[in-house]
Sequence to fold (404 residues):
Amino acid sequence: MIDSAQLLEDAERLLPDLIDLRRRIHRAPELGLALPNTQATVLDEIDGLALDTRTGESVSSVVADLAVGAGPVVLLRGDMDALPMPEDTGLEFASAIDGCMHACGHDAHTAMLVGAARLLHARRAQLPGTVRFMFQPGEEGHHGARYMIEEGVLDGDVPVDAAFALHVSPNLPSGTIWTRGGPLMASADVLEIKVSGKGGHASTPYLASDPMPIAAEIVQALQVMVTRRINTFDPVVVTITKIRAGTTDNVIPEAVDMLGTLRAVSEHSRALAIDAMNQLVEGIASAHGMRAELTVHKGYPVTINHDDGASFALEVASDLLGAEGAGKMPAPVMGAEDFSYVLQRRPGAMSFLGVCPPGEHPARAHACHSNRMTIDEAAMSVGAAMYAALAVEYLGRGERDSPR
Fold:
């Protein structure tokens, strides 16, 4: 259905504008569900295109439909929010907002989706259906996709038939597309553990109930639990990232508070790990005459690509970039994504776009969520073309033959 060479050429022609847009968003990052400036920038960038555009009621989202006659509806998502962290890249367009950085590539995602809207608008005569552009806030832990789903992004007079998303990765060769069927990214739950004992003088621990060594024992036991209670081929990751207790050198504290994360690539292992952790935390504390409580704050579910959707995405990428430009991932990654909510309700797939910076090796490049993360901006033309190719191919095949 598509002329791959022409599509890539058109995307490359847009690249200077996409780089400029990405840098403007990068310099002025916004956090969470309220992104008024980023939302306004997106609206300005797509103004003049034949799109039916609406904004969110509870969040700073933008939904834009390119509707051309009867046919299926395919959704393309780009997230827009940044992370609450400092930037140390030294870039001339580095964040001007203290403690806020686009360290996960959402600035590039937004720019690429704008580019795709322009590419598809120019090809609207070839689109027997509707392309829905989903510009989403609040991916970084704020459940933005869920808010947009509640506001009807998947519904309408003609509901969405399939959904696709791209996510950049500096740790993949620039300009390549990677995905897999089944679990692509992990679930993400926040763990809080409180160990309660009895305070006292540090010189007489036998007169107190010191929660410190119990907390240390729990941390070690959690790692043993992962290797001995969970199937190696259905793994979980448990990491304790913060331990807080005490006030000075000669006082045994009454309690220790711990914070951490649980990652899993199946709901089965996720539930098994939570049950095992509860048993372990309570049992270790009880064995020492103390109390401990685990609280699990459920985060994003496992991001599970539909097999047909992932195969379709790889086929489109191969047609667009050649066989060497697309690859099947051998295993999931343990990061998490709220596109998982979309894929729970509609068939489709998320894919990774390699953006390893020039002169760097993918294995050594600063990863997403690093304060020094940078990208090869030239790869954004591939991302915009890939978004557009997914829509053209999906709609061209018609609802009956599209991936399910």
